C-alpha cells in the first residue's frame, strides 16, 4: 500500500504563499526555461540543478538547501517525473495528487454527501471543503495528456453543482483523450436541467457509476439510509441516459443485497437495458463498514450461486458485466471472464496465503483494509501440467 499523504519538513524559507501545487521532475537535465514552474525531486546526494521553483529531498541534504525546499517522509519514495504534489498552507502537510505512471488516479471532490450508506468507505462530513475545487482545477493542467483515465469521487460530487460542470469542462479542455469515471449516487440528476448542463459539456469519454442496491425500493433506501433515494436514483439514471451520458450501475454485495442479486439483474434486464455496464462489487472494510460489519459481512464464497445467476442474466441480455474487488480463488470459474483487477494500486494488497499463487497477476487482490476480515476460502492456484488448477 502506497502512502499518498504525510508530513513534510521545510528546510529553508518558503517564498510561495498559500497552498503549493506543483508538477515535479527528477530529471537534472530538465529544460532550463521551464524550471521555475517545477519542483525538483532529489533522490541522491549529487549536486542540485539550479533554477527550479522548489526542491523535494528524499534524504537530508548535506549542503544548505535552497529556498522552497522540503524533506519528505521516508515512505514517499515513488515520486517521479510528471507527478503533481500538494503542500498545504501549514507547510507541514503533503499529498501526492497525481502519479503519471499510475493507471489509478482520482480526485476526491468533496466529503459531503446526501446519502449515509451503511458500508460507506468515505463517511460524509458536513464541513465546507470547497477549497478542493481550486486544488483540482490547478492540478488538471499539470497532468500528462497521455493519462488514460481519471476518477472523480466523494462524498457526492453533484453537491458541487456548477463547480462540478466546470471540473468536467476543464478535463475535456486539458485532457481530451483521458477517460473520466465519476462516482455519484445519481440522486441530483433527477433534476433534468442539471443533468443537461453536465451532458452539454459533451465530454467524449465520461461515465458515471451509480449504485442501485435492489429491485425493491425499501432495501435500497435502507442501505443508503435515505428515504426516497431509490426513486431519485432511477430518475437520475434515466435522465442521464436520455441525454447520452454513459452510466454504470454499481452493486456492493453484502448481507442486505446478496440474496436478491438475481432479482436486481432481472429488473435491470427489463427496465434499464440501456445502461453501459453493471459492476458487481466486493465489500471494502473501511469507514462505516467497520462499524456495521456484523450486519454486512458474508463470505464471498457463500454468495457465489446468486452472483453467478445475476452475471449470467445480465450477460445473456448483452449488458456488459464486471466483477470488482474479488479474489479469483473464491469466484466460481464461470465468473472468471467477468473478473476485473479493480482495486487502486495504492491500496491493493495480497495476503500471506497468496504468496505461492500461480495466478496472482490475474487476481484482483485485496483492499489493504481486508486484514479486518476476508474469506476463509483463500486458496492459491498452482501450475499442474501447464494448466492452472486449485490446490
Report what the structure shows:
With 391 residues, the chain is of the alpha/beta class. It folds into two domains: 5-96; 106-342, Alpha-Beta Barrel (TIM Barrel). The protein is built from nine helices and 19 strands. The strands form four sheets. It has an eight-stranded mixed beta sheet with strand order 1-8-7-3-4-5-6-2. Strand 13, helix 6 and strand 14 form a beta-alpha-beta unit. Helix 6 (261-271) packs parallel to helix 9. The radius of gyration is 23 Å and the shape is globular. 38% of the residues are buried. Mean pLDDT is 94; it is low at 384-391.
Strand order of the largest sheet: 1-8-7-3-4-5-6-2
Top CATH class of the largest domain: Alpha Beta
Q: What is the distance, rounded to the nearest whole angstrom, between the alpha carbons of the first and last residues?
A: 28 Å
Helicity range of the residues? 10-25%
Label the overall shape.
globular
How large a portion of the residues is in β-strands, by DSSP E? 15-25%
- Unreliable spans are 384-391
Mean pLDDT over the residues: 94
Number of helices: 9
Looking at CATH, which topology of the largest domain would you report? TIM Barrel
**Structural class determined from secondary elements:** alpha/beta
Please state the oligomeric state of the protein chains shown. Answer: single chain
Note the run of SSEs as H and E.
EEEEEEEEEHEHEHEHHEHEHHHEEEEE
- In the CATH hierarchy, the architecture of the largest domain is Alpha-Beta Barrel
Amino acid at each position: 500500500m502506497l502512502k499518498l499523504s504525510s508530513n513534510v519538513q521545510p528546510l529553508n524559507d518558503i517564498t510561495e504563499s498559500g497552498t503549493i501545487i506543483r508538477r515535479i521532475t527528477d530529471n537534472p537535465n530538465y529544460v532550463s526555461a521551464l524550471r521555475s514552474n517545477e519542483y525538483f525531486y532529489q533522490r541522491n546526494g549529487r549536486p542540485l540543478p539550479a533554477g527550479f521553483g522548489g526542491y523535494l529531498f528524499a534524504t537530508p541534504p548535506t549542503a544548505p538547501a535552497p529556498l522552497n525546499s522540503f524533506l519528505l517522509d521516508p515512505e514517499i519514495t515513488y515520486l517521479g517525473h510528471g507527478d503533481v504534489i500538494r503542500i498545504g498552507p501549514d507547510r507541514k502537510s503533503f499529498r501526492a495528487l497525481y502519479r503519471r505512471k499510475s493507471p489509478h488516479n482520482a480526485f476526491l471532490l468533496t466529503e459531503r454527501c446526501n446519502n449515509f450508506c451503511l458500508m460507506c468507505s468515505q463517511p460524509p462530513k458536513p464541513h465546507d471543503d470547497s477549497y478542493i475545487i481550486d486544488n483540482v482545477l490547478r492540478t488538471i493542467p499539470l497532468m500528462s495528456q497521455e493519462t488514460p483515465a481519471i476518477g472523480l469521487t466523494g462524498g457526492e460530487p453533484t453537491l458541487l453543482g456548477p463547480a462540478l460542470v466546470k471540473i468536467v469542462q476543464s478535463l475535456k479542455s486539458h485532457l481530451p483523450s483521458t477517460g473520466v469515471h465519476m462516482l455519484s449516487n445519481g440522486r441530483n440528476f433527477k433534476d433534468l436541467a442539471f443533468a443537461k448542463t453536465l451532458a452539454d459539456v459533451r465530454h467524449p469519454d465520461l461515465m458515471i457509476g451509480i449504485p442501485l442496491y435492489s429491485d425493491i425500493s425499501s432495501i435500497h433506501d435502507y442501505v443508503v439510509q435515505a428515504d426516497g433515494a431509490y426513486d431519485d436514483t432511477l430518475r437520475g439514471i434515466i435522465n442521464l441516459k436520455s441525454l447520452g451520458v454513459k452510466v454504470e450501475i454499481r452493486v456492493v454485495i453484502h448481507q442486505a443485497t446478496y440474496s436478491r442479486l438475481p432479482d436486481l439483474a432481472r429488473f435491470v434486464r427489463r427496465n434499464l437495458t440501456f445502461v453501459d455496464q453493471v459492476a458487481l462489487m466486493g465489500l471494502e472494510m473501511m469507514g462505516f463498514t467497520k462499524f456495521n460489519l456484523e450486519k454486512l459481512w458474508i463470505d464471498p464464497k457463500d454468495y457465489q450461486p446468486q452472483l453467478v445467476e445475476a452475471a449470467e442474466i445480465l450477460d445473456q441480455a448483452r449488458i456488459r458485466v464486471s466483477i470488482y474487488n474479488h479474489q479469483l480463488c473464491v469466484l466460481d470459474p464461470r465468473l472468471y471472464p467477468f473478473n476485473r483487477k479493480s482495486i487502486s494500486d495504492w491500496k491493493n494488497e495480497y495476503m500471506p496465503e497468496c504468496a505461492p499463487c500461480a495466478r496472482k497477476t490475474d487476481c484482483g487482490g485485496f483492499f489493504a483494509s481486508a486484514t479486518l476480515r476476508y474469506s476463509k476460502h483463500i486458496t492459491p492456484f498452482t501450475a499442474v501440467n501447464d494448466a492452472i488448477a486449485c490446490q
